[in-house]
Amino acid sequence: MTGGQLPQPPKRSGANDGWVAIGYLLSGILVWSGVGWLIDRWLHLQGIPIAIGAIIGAIGGIYLVMRRFSP
Amino acid sequence: MSKVASVLSLEDPPWPPSVDEFFPPGLFGVEWLTKFMLMVWLAIALIIIFFLVAYRNPKIVPGRMQWLAESIYGFTRDSIAKEVIGHEGVRFAPYLTTLLVFIAITNVFALIPLLQISPNSHIAFPVMLALITYILYLYWGVKAHGAWGYIKTSLFPPNVPWPMYVLLTPIEFVMVFLMRPFTLSLRLFANMFAGHMMLLVFTLGGFALLNAESLFIKPLSILSWGMTVLLTLFETLVALLQAYVFVLLTSSYLQSSLAEEH
Fold first, then answer.
1. Rounded alpha-carbon distances, angstroms, from residue B207 to B178, B194, B197, B212
2. ipTM for the whole complex
3. pTM of this prediction?
4. C or N terminus of chain A, fewer CB within 10 Å?
């Protein structure tokens, strides 16, 4: 009933774009290094899961930013 | 500071300024009745009176007050609500206008003599405002797509191979449900907090320099007060800009709640 029936989607104002990009990158790294931290606490692997999680999260964050801003 | 100097100075300014500044005491022995509370009531009263008076006797050719009220509402409706949300946005224009005016007025309180602090520099007030926005866009998201549909549109980005969801969905969850209200309240709070702190540092710093023992340091207080004047102008800009940003982000979130996909 709402949304998609618009004849054309509203123009993106661009005011929020910077926050979206930073938010995706940061929350990607934070979420997955958090998961890595939990695994590290569980298995005591000297922080290696945190590093792997941060890299995976960065990949996810960059992917989401690219998906959002590519035309 | 030597004993002589502190006696000579007319009043000893509290230096350095501390966070206690943002926790004013309760008035008349009532703990919750603080300066902030009175200022919020004042802001609400001002908004109600202003819009009632402006529209009490509307004319086709508007008078000055009606013109001002119509410009504010028209700006929010056309430049924020319609521009960001689209045609659907008109229904949110009254809320967005109220939000804009309320935040702008409470922010500008930071610059009015005697008031001189914004309620928004206390985290509780921006948190409440962000919470209203949070509930609003969740409600409209669920209303537009249904509970499961809303979760699906906001957590599962389309056109993505499904194994990626394991990676992406937690990130989207944190973005939509945790980061948004958090950053929304924090941005307003931090701007107003820092603005008040800077004005305090340069105003009280001027007194501290004036009370210095060395004759060469005293003239520097002029510089410090000059900075106060400049920063006051800067704060005016920040106060209005932050009100605008808050409303713009609120409508941006509403737009992503209503849209089919984001």
1. 43, 20, 15, 9
2. 0.72
3. 0.82
4. C
